[in-house]
Design brief:
With 79 residues, the chain is mainly alpha-helical. It contains five helices and no strands. It has a domain of 41 residues.
């Protein structure tokens, strides 16, 4: 698979959703933590908009995740 910004954004959003499920965090919880609207959080996480670096960092911070770890997991890289 050729890596494009669109499929990277989609993969990262999918990994963030998976982490949310593991932590039992909802979009409402993230909205409360970040000050963003639930609507915007959902749009970022369902792939309707590409994540900006700032948005990605904000979501990772709210979930207590390392952005590097999220990207590595999204790409399926194993050591």
């Amino acid at each position: 698979m050729v890596l494009t910004m669109t499929n990277l954004s989609t993969s990262v959003a999918g990994e963030l959703r998976a982490q949310m499920a593991r932590q039992r965090v909802t979009a409402v919880d993230l909205a409360d933590q970040t000050g963003e609207s639930v609507f915007r959080i959902r749009r970022m996480l369902d792939g309707r908009v590409n994540l900006t670096v700032d948005d990605f960092g904000m979501l990772c911070e709210a979930l207590g995740l390392s952005p590097v770890d999220v990207v590595v997991a999204a790409l399926g890289v194993t050591s």
